[in-house]
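Hi F.,

I've been meaning to write this up properly since the lab meeting, where we talked about keeping a consistent format for the predictions we share between groups. The idea is simple: the sequence comes first, exactly as it goes in, then the structure tokens exactly as they come out, then a line or two of notes. No screenshots and no reformatting. I'm using this chain as the first example so we have something concrete to point to.
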Amino acid sequence: MTIPQGGIFSSVAKPITYANVLYRIGRIIRPHWWAIVLAIISMGLVAGTETGIPALLKPLIDNGFGLMGSSLSVFWYVPIALVGLALGRGIAQYASNYLLSYVLNCISLHLRLQMFQTMLHVPADFFQRETASTIISAIVFEVNQVLNVLMTVLITLVRDSLTVVFLLGYLLYLNWQLTIIVAIILPASGSLISKLNKHLRRLNREQQILTNQISYIVEETVGGYKVIKVHNGELYEMRRFTHMTKLLRDYAMRVAISGGLAQPMTQFFASVTLAVIVSIAVIESANYHITVGGCIAFIMSMLLIISPLKHLIDINQPLTSGMTAAELIFGLIDEPVENAGGERKVIRAKGSIEFKHVSFNYGAAYQSTLDDISFKISPGEVVAIAGSSGSGKTTLVNLLPRFFDPSTGHVLVDGIPILEYQLPDLRNQIAFVTQDVVLFNDTIAANIAYGGPVDYKRAEAALCAANLIDSVELMPAGINTLVGDNGMRLSGGQRQRLAIARAIYKDSPILILDEATSALDAESERHVQDALSVLMSGRTTLLITHRLSTIQRADRIIVLDRGRIVEQGTHAQLLCRNGLYAYLYRIQHLQNPSV
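Output, unedited:
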């Protein structure tokens, strides 16, 4: 059976031992040690009450009828003690569960905050390697898996272990010979069950991969519903989803088979042990070596010991699931974050940019996307980057805000390598508008002022400059209207203009426009081009667009081909040279004479 392979934090994810997980969790819960201590004490009290029940019943059964005739006050001592024992057990169990829930929720909060913090600061290539469904699964769902394991481990290792110890001690006190028989038979089941769980961890890991693959299929289907409907792809998607779901079912059944055999085998060995003990106890009772009360107390203690012993034997299955989840969680937490840069601060850059012998590739297996790129841009200069698709235009502008770092060479702002700037300060100097508009499910005002408090006057001015104010004023709540998931309540042109308004609002000295007007109709583009002309005035602008009407306004045009600079100059100069730019211009002019 073939398992589809995904990223799943493959850059750092390595097998994690139980000891390592417990050590890392221990560091998290260290500030809450008092709650753990109180929980252990409470679980110890619960374990102690398990032994108290058969210990109280033994004298009642042995002497109960005689006590009724001699002293009713002595007779009622046992029932009252049983009620008190049950009450104390309930209080102790509630206290232990509450304290454990408190600690585990603290761990949940800490892990989720750590994962989200890491996710915010990982390099851009992480999001190209991992699917959104895998990241969501790790942050939202896998934490619950680990918490369930921790709850199981703490209860099993503390309460159940103490229960076994107390009951075994009482069994030895009642009849050490019978206890030795119990100690010989029951561990045999544990040895056999441990062999059944050898493959559980591998099965759980592969099951998790399949779960993430299914989540990704659902995510793709939701995001691409228009393409699916237009191409009648419902049957194809259903087949793909059915195939993956059947694979997941098969693995779930294999996990269930491996893990489910433990319970019936434990029960079988317990029944065999009980049969042997009952037979021996009857023989000894006939020979007056054991009382009826002692026999019943022994059998009851032995029955009470089966459940916690079973939990100890079965602990491997939840631990295996938890370890798989822990690998994802700590794999995300351990992901390397972006290089934070140097110590140099900058309030507002002048805006000069230089690429000095810059090359870049996305990995050793890939061909260089950029190859020995060198050019300078003066403050306030508008430079357009032209070239056919795949020539490296977007990759080049992505190096400036350090979404990626060059493989070789340097990018400089105001004559200083950008690695020397503090990363937040560097990015404060740059406004970025791309063809893939990203809006947040918040108000129009919050989207314009994203990352800071809203200045409504500035926001309205930005909307005016982006030719969007008239449309916003017609909305029910005006500038406080919610835009929906990624701006789904807005038209494509409105979304694009809102992104431009956000760049206008930021008022940075460096502006990057990557197909910023691609979603606008001719009328909207005319108004936005006027706004952009004002915005670009006095600002260093890197402009990527296929609309030559915009490129013609640039002070200089740099033409890329296969990651190398092949031409640069003004629009008129490049047409006169009759090179690649002139060729691209003629093709577009023939396709759209109005350009």
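Notes:
Confidence is low (pLDDT under 50) at residues 1-6.
Residues 18-333 form a domain with the ABC transporter transmembrane region fold fold (CATH 1.20.1560.10).

If this format works for you, I'll send the rest the same way.

G.
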